[in-house]
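#data-curation
PF: Archiving a pair of folding outputs for the training set. Convention for this channel: one message per protein, sequence first, structure tokens after, nothing in between. First:
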Amino acid sequence: MTEVKANEVKGWDDLKVPGDFIFTTMNGHEGPAGMVMMCPCGCGDISCVAFDVPARTDDGPKWGWNGSREKPTLSPSLKKITGCEWHGHLVDGVFRPC
């Protein structure tokens, strides 16, 4: 599998191409609190990740985000546990498979 450029789109209906994503918000937090993305492998699945922000108090998994809308980086790696089970990294705006 090859690398896929991350591409921020305007809304849910625009999630069409592998690597497309939108930022999500959360009450009580200013700015992005997560990301919804079209799987970079091309399977067509949509996945969500929550950012580790102060307003998020649940015990679920959370990812660090570098704060860049143009070249987002998430940490740790992304691993789908259903469907295609894609595993990789989003670094400097590029999805890279492991």
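PF: Second:
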Amino acid sequence: MPLYDFYNEKTDEIETHSMRISKLEEFKKDNPHLSQKILKCPSTVSGSGGFKNDEGWKENLARIAEAHPTTPLAEKVGGRKSKDLKTQEVLKKHGLF
């Protein structure tokens, strides 16, 4: 749920309340001494250390790279065989690739 900051005119402080958007108008009517300041989103916790690929995903990428040897994925993953590399070099040399 979103967090809302309200300025309390009676206490001269800022209060934070968590509520559904559908309840916001009703809350404002029930608390006329509060004026809305800022809408905040709740903070989320994400993993640390980045994203790591498991072996199944790496195998899947290798299969895709092998099926499409002329793609940048094949260059990155290394799914190309030496025969394919030599063939590609000859095609480039003769302007056929």
